[in-house]
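Entry 14. Ran structure prediction on the chain below.
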Amino acid sequence: MPPPHPRHATGPESAREAAAALREARPGALAQALRVARALGEELPVPGAGRTGQLWLRLSELARLDLSLARVVEPHLDALAVLRQAGLEELAGLPAAWGVWAAEAPGHELAARRGPGGWELTGSKAWCSLAAHLDRAVVTASTGTGRRRAFVVDLAHPGVVPGSTLEWRPAGLGDVPTGGVRCTAVPAVPVGEDGWYLERPGFAWGGIGVAACWYGGAAGVADLLWDDAVRRREPGRRPLDQLGHAALGTVDARLHSARTALRTAAEQVDAGRAGGERGAVLALRTRRVVARAAEAVVGEVSAATGPGPLTGAPEHVRRVSALQVYVRQEHAQRDAAALGRALLGGAAGDRPW
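Output, structure tokens:
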């Protein structure tokens, strides 16, 4: 996967314009971002269809422009991929803005039961991004078997009531409203059987797509360092010293490792070598590499540029804050432990390196 470049067209709505609208908090900015998502949903492939690298490249490009824009687009594309993997092409073809709500949280339980007209969802779901702005969502719920199942819900149904987003007050990604949703006898269309959502190969692939967004966000943060280094080559300016060159080299190496991991993962997915346990290991490993690279880039850029950008450059502050929140979708040492267990569980005494 080559380095992202933010100048590609994205259909009827310009991604650059949508990113600017979000940064400047213009009225209708989220609607504009969702129009970009819908345009890309018609244009981009799903993972595993032979052009996975192209999909992840475009996600990284969007994230490099603005992480909030990527945070709006990525779940829409993920929902379409889930539907197509389940054979629900008709639903995937609807003119709708989609989300995916699969997080579980204490105190929130969404139950799926068969009613007179089919499946219905009742209860509450936490961490539902853009609930008041989307048309439909893929939602996981308990069916009473101890396993969860995915369902499609129409968010225009009166039984869907978005809750307050006041509990979601992050320093970054605050313009992507997130909160709880309460459902009361909401008709639902099942997506796969019990457990299918988490067990399908596409679950791991979707997680790597999120990592592509982290990579793009990190590249956006690193742009500050590069632009400063280039300006210092102009006549009359003070050139980079040895420490500045070291920071530039360190950031490049970190981004290269992340980019290489994403490229390798895309090749494995398209070659059919990323299913089952292998897919889970690939996702955990790739997300780990990209998350650590993103965190290292933030630290290196901050150390090299000093407090100025973090106190006087609002766009850079926005990038850093958003990346630090977004990358926490990787669960740090818990995911490292999960990777270690997966490596041992799938090994027959062979080292993975």
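Strands lie at 98-101, 110-115, 118-129, 136-142, 148-154, 160-162, 178-191. Will compare against last week's run tomorrow.
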